[in-house]
Amino acid sequence: MSAPVPDPDPRNTTRPSGGVPPGETPAGESSTGSGAGPYRPLTRGWGKGPLVLICLVALACALFFLAYAIMLNV
User: Fold this and answer.
1) How far apart are CA 70 and CA 53, in angstroms?
2) pLDDT 10s digits, 21-65
3) Is the pTM of this model over 0.85?
4) CA angle (42, 46, 48) in 5-degree steps
């Protein structure tokens, strides 16, 4: 069996195993966390005010398009 021949191109940074030299990639621990702090579950849901407002806006849009469709057919 013969020894592996070194790569003549010095710009080739890959190793025979397919990895990259140390220092080329960040540590695995640095990208695992979100950095947002400890998890705190929500204590309350949507407020009634914003939910009613969204429903009213959706109803107004639906009525507008219904009236527009009726006006096109007249």
Assistant:
1) 26
2) 666 665 555 555 556 677 777 777 778 889 999 999 999 999 999
3) no
4) 145
Per-residue tokens: 40 = 């705190």
Structure tokens at 74: 């007249």
In this structure, what token pair is assigned to residue 71?
A: 């006006």
Residues 18, 23, 25, 28: is their CA dihedral positive or negative?
positive
15, 21 contact by CB (below 8 A): yes
* CA 64 – CA 50 distance, rounded (Å): 21
Rounded CA-CA distance 67/59 in Å is 12
